Amino acid sequence: MALSSPQLQRFLATEFNFISNTKNANRNHLTTTTVISARSPCRCSAIAIDAPSSLTDVAGIRWGSTSVQGTREEMEDDLIIRSDGLDGFSFAAVFDGHGGVSSIKFLRDELYKECVTALQGGILLKGGDFNAIKKALTVAFENADKKLLNWLETIGEGDDESGSTATVMLIGNEVLLISHVGDSCVVLSRAGKVEVLTDSHRPYGSNKASLQEIRRIREAGGWIVNGRICGDIAVSRAFGDIRFKTKKNEMLKKGVEESRWSEKFISRVVFNEDLVIASPDTFKVALGSDAEFVLLASDGLWDYIKSSEAVAFVRNQLREHGDVQVACDALAQAALDQGSQDNVSIIIADLGHTDWQSLPLQRQSFLYEFGQALATVGIVSLGIWLSSQVSF
Question: Which of 2, 70, 318, 346 could be joined to 356 by an S-S link, Cβ 3.0–4.6 Å?
Fold first, then answer.
């Protein structure tokens, strides 16, 4: 069973990283409850249909969910998981608000209702026509935004400028559908390999998605200053944000009053479309037996932890104890430990294809056998050390 040098290096890197990451994951797990509760202000909640840890729904998916306020003065994130109303498909969404909490409070239930209606209670999902599903979800998002804008006009004398991103997952029949507005992100762990499934809607950067957003904003009559639309908002697709939709002219006049720009400047501005939109990007992903779990989180996680690191962290957590909710809480704590200054909201959907509890035993058995094989070909000291790492 002699391995070439490159093979040996790859194996050692994988296995030693597994041992190290397991210890680190366990340390984060042990500190999650005490450290989170000690932070102020901070909130951590499992919203998975008000059910216990690691809820398993009718589709065999185990869910975990966490929202942590962190150091922010206000909690402007929210999330929802529903396993009813869509004929065997599960619905999960993360909302990342800004400028207040009004928009996320409205959207948490309203967007779900609009999706159920547009998808005909799941009939379209069962039918599998992606174009029909995509069109329905676009209608649902845009209808929810129209209702939100009308509602914002009625509260606070129409001065509520709050908004919210939203990323929705629909899972069923070995298919994952994503409808996405904003800068939250969805990643899939497929046999340990990371697949990033969404692009952030931000008006800066040189990637394809950002360049498309920049072009759309400029064609609509807007401008970008320091990565922000009209020098104000750093996300280009969102619900609400009334000043960039139905009150664009009022926004210009307010800018003059605040000396942000001149009367001469606004006399040259012509708006053709809304600067911020709620039309989603929609994707379809086939799952299959190698799909382990889906991780959806707000940018309070992704701005501080890479997708590959987050997936490795969750995998090690699930190997350690198999509890999806505990893994969620520990990942949120890890983001805070990395210095996240934002609210952090996380949903994990364990797809039920992996027996996490059997993996440590499989790995230990492999380590032992590999160590014995090394010893037989003369690499005695390393072989003995590897074998000693096993505790059956």
Answer: 318
Q: What is the 3-state secondary structure (H, E, C) of the chain?
A: CCCCHHHHHHHHHHHHHHHHHHHHHHHHHHHHHHHHHHCCCCCECCCHHHCCCCEECCCCCEEEEEEECCCCCCCCEEEEEECCCCCCCEEEEEEEEECCCHHHHHHHHHHHHHHHHHCHHHHHHHHCCHHHHHHHHHHHHHHHHHHHHHHHHHCHHHCCCCEEEEEEEEEECCEEEEEEECCCEEEEEECCEEEECCCCCCCCCCCHHHHHHHHHHHHCCCCEECCEECCCECCCECEECHHHCCCHHHHHHHHHHCCCCCHHHHHCCCCCCCCCECCCEEEEEECCCCEEEEEEECHHHHCCCCHHHHHHHHHHHHHHCCCHHHHHHHHHHHHHHCCCCCCEEEEEEECCCCCHHHHHHHHHHHHHHHHHHHHHCCCHHHHHHHHHCCCC
| CATH superfamily to which 5-200+279-354 belongs | PPM-type phosphatase domain (3.60.40.10)
pLDDT reading at 390 higher than 90: no
State the pLDDT at residue 374.
57
What per-residue confidence (pLDDT) applies to 24?
Answer: 40
C-beta of residue 260 within 8 angstroms of C-beta of residue 226: no
Burial 155-185 (b: 16+ CB within 10 A, else e): eeeeebbbbbbbbbbbbbeebbbbbbbbbbb
**Residue 36 has what pLDDT?**
35
Domain locations in the chain? Answer: 5-200+279-354, 211-236+242-267
- Is pLDDT of 1 > 70? no
pTM of the shown model: 0.79
Length of the chain: 392
Q: What is the pLDDT of residue 157?
A: 75
37-51, 204-218, 315-329, 331-345: range with lowest mean pLDDT:
37-51
Q: Are strands 185-190 and 193-196 parallel, antiparallel or unpaired?
A: antiparallel
